Amino acid sequence: MPSPTPFQPPGDPATKPRVRRLGSLVNQLMSRRGYAQVSVNEQLQQTIATVLSESLHSCFQVGNLRGGVLQIYAADSVTLQELNFQKRVILKRLQKEKAFQNIVDVRFRIQSA
């Protein structure tokens, strides 16, 4: 004998499909797929490049931002040393941008292959 199911009237919210705004679905998709992170990393890369000499533009890569600390990966030890010399200038430039005001420190590492 099948178990009895409670009667649900046709206008019951449990039977209606959940309607969501298109904007919230797009935001959810972007965050799940990481599309927004790619855009932010490109902005960070460009902002840091404005501080450095042109010879260093292709020698570093922006990493993760956790707890207000931004990781930046250098291609070699010479670049790492130059980035450390420029650390205060880079940090002030990042904090000057409204989008990156939550960055409180920058840490540099050599990029592993």
What features would you describe in this structure?
- The protein has helices at residues 22-33, 35-51, 77-85, 87-96, and strands spanning 60-66, 69-74, 105-110.
- The protein is elongated and about 65 Å long.
- Strands 1-2-3 form a 3-stranded mixed β-sheet.
- Helix 2 (35-51) crosses helix 4 (87-96).
- The chain has a single domain (22-110), classed as GMP Synthetase, Chain A, domain 3.
- The model has no long low-confidence stretch (mean pLDDT 80).
- It is of the alpha+beta class.
- The longest helix is centred in the middle third of the chain and has 17 residues, at 35-51.
Q: What do we call the CATH topology? A: GMP Synthetase, Chain A, domain 3
How far is the N terminus from the C terminus? 65 Å
H-E string: HHEEHHE
CATH class: Alpha Beta
- Structurally, the number of domains stands at 1
The biggest beta sheet reads: 3 strands, mixed
Global structural class: alpha+beta
Share of β-strand residues: 15-25%
Number of helices: 4
| Proportion in helices | 40-55%
Judging by the overall fold, what is the CATH architecture?
A: 2-Layer Sandwich
Largest sheet, spatial ordering of strands: 1-2-3
- Total strands: the figure is 3
Shape descriptor: elongated
Oligomer: single chain
Which spans have pLDDT < 50 for at least 5 consecutive residues?
A: none
Alpha carbon gyration radius: 24 Å
Mean pLDDT: 80
